[in-house]
Amino acid sequence: MDKTVTPFDMPAGMDIAWCPGCGNHMLLKAVKSALHELGIDRKNLVMVSGIGQAAKAAQYIKANMFNGLHGRALPVALGIKLANKNLDVIVESGDGDMYGEGGNHFLHAIRRNINITVIVHDNMVYALTKGQASPTSPCGIKTPVQVNGVKLEPFNPLAVALALNAPFVARAYAGDVERTKEIIKQAIAFKGFSLVDVFQPCVVFNKVNTYQWFREHTVSLPENHDVTDRTGAFGLAIQPGKLLLGVFYRDEKRELYEEQMGIGTIPLYERNQLDDEAFHKLVNNYL
Amino acid sequence: MYHDISMVFCGAAGQGIQTITDALLNVLKKYGCNIFSCTEYMSRIRGGSNTAEIRITENKRDTYVRRIDMLFALSHNVVEHLKDRISSSTLIFAEKERFGDPWGDNCIDTPLTKSALEAGSAAFSNIVAAGVVLGLFGIPLELFTAYLRVKFAAKGEEIVAKNCIAAKLGYSFGRDTATTANISLQISIPADRPERLLMDGTTALGIGAVAAGCNFISSYPMSPGTGLLTFLATRTKEFGIVVDQAEDEIAAINAGLGASYAGARAIVTTSGGGFDLMQEGVSLAGMIETPIVIHIGQRPGPATGMPTRTEQGDLNLALHAGHGDFARAIFSPGTLAEIIDTTQQAFNLAQQYQIPVFILADQYLLDTVSTIETASVKRLTVKNFLIKTTENYQRYAFTDDGLSPRGVPGYGDGLVRVDSDEHDENGLITESFEIRRLMVEKRLKRMHSLRETARAPTLIGTVDQAEMLVISWGSNRGVLEEALDIIGNRAFAGIHFSQVFPLSPVIKSLFENKKLLVLENNATGQFADLLALETGRSISRKILKATGEPFTVEEVVDALNQSYHG
Prior knowledge:
A: 287 residues; alpha/beta; Rossmann fold; eight-stranded mixed beta sheet; two-stranded antiparallel ribbon; B: 566 residues; Pyruvate-ferredoxin Oxidoreductase, domain 3; 20 helices; globular
């Protein structure tokens, strides 16, 4: 295994709470390499996550961290970005966290278009709670709760994101660290809300979507795919058959929420002293 | 002849009751009167029956009375709506042509629409009504026309002129009626009255937030908490405030905490039902030791309850919100000055102690309009407790008082790592029982200092000589003060709490050898129970009301008299 050292490595010997062979390890490596290659300053980077095994990723990256509540990474990331837009904010969490518990926030974060990157560990199962269905579990698989197999239509994160006009939508497979890293680099460098849904096998609780299964059921997007064609991207996102990997869509023109709100470069922590004259003017309105 | 008058304006939603009261309050305040106004309205956009009460009093009063001296009826269902408050001495001003004459001898046929049409449009009837009132009391018409000129300046000369005609027609009718019906207002206006401001509770809350250096709000609209969101939304540029309308209350508080983590001075505003959803965020604030100010504008619950009515039913909710043990503080202002003051204190305390701090208001307090002396708008120093981090910064470093210096990401050479899991000094997940024990202790240690420095309650009357102490919190300060004044019995004194948690240690000696009565706007006596728990004292009587309305002065006077004789 490649032993590339990055400024984002935690001290050696740190106990990693992931199972041996878990796809999370590879995704972590891809994320840290991407950050390193982009020359991101860890002091200026905030990793935001929710709860779950995937959400522990933030623990293992040497940077600022807000490891919040289950499903709530996106509102936290929004708050951080609005309070200090100079910070690089990356959200990393699992499919249950992002698409289940945090589903409403997912919809509205996309509508806002804040300049953050969202990396979703998509293993199609709830692993930390021992194997129940997640929003992206395929129909038919049996779990301790879905004893007769999953009946619900799987959540299609790419199609939903495209429907809401997310300006950067991509999918990767953690088993291919190099390509995952490249996609994540593009996502981080992109100015706007960028979603990278990353397939990654759960070796303990998902016996269907294994490394071999992903190798057999995924394929790169066609070479000639036009990333500026939203309708085309949507078609590819809902297309039956093999699951496509790569950057589905990018729209450089969507205005950022923080720009619409007129948020300047001075962080709020530097702006908490009141302008006396403005305050007197405010009070005098009630004379 | 009136020394203290209670006027009520009643009409359907959308009829412009607020236009009348805004005009009158502004003019009466300019003239120098002591005024107080509150509203009650239905949860609908048009129709129904809404009322606004305006009191003009010799002494400054801050409360609602049941008695109606003058009633201005703008719609026909007024009688049914107010039947319990109309008495034989209530004078009713109504247009007989429109409503017939259901009121008998007490009704003065008042040509509101007729005069409005004369001025150019039925839309001016509210201005006519305000003119009638000012005419009745002989308050100079010039004050009113000056107000109208400013108010309608943007609409052009013609509109201003027509409004002034409507005002004058109403005014003349008022003057004539004062003579024929022998009406006069006898109040003294001191010439040296200090400069005063006119505002409602929501505005005071907004001014308090601005004064506190608030620069972030994320909230989801819910009555009666929405007013603060609106207030700040219109002032983002002047004060550099970031305003985000969240997709739900869960998002609101989590965004508030994200912003606060990054160094914003953040507030969220909601009502009880919305706050139910925020509770996980309160618990998160406790765990990650991140400041947040939470305004709860209370209204009657459970569930949707009565969306536009009032209650003090969310004390237990604020007190116990969020799972786990952690520190918090709860303010409960009762006057405009207290709102402005405690809001600033809430921000400073949240920053200093790195905790969630609550401001518990209610519909009645937020919608109340009153005056406040400009000099009473106190500014507290905006205290900054943030540090610039150094390379080996530990967000949760153990200290004697449990408070670790707080850094923010991007400021200094350190990394700021916060975690909702139990964590070590570096913010990393731990399952060490020893670290857990120390962290629980760390998060609670600050309660000691919070308690020692808690706001002392306000004493009303001669507490040391009284046998019975009547205790209020939040919006009931005004009604308690006036009721005690009316009773004039030195066996009673009052104590008002503008901070209900933690409680100031001074109460122990204050309560000694006194009978305790607690006045609150809920069904079970939530504050009475808290006092009993915290002081070990039993409460002799709970005076409670949970109908969705505030207490009237008359009710409290009766309840206290009964307590004395019974």
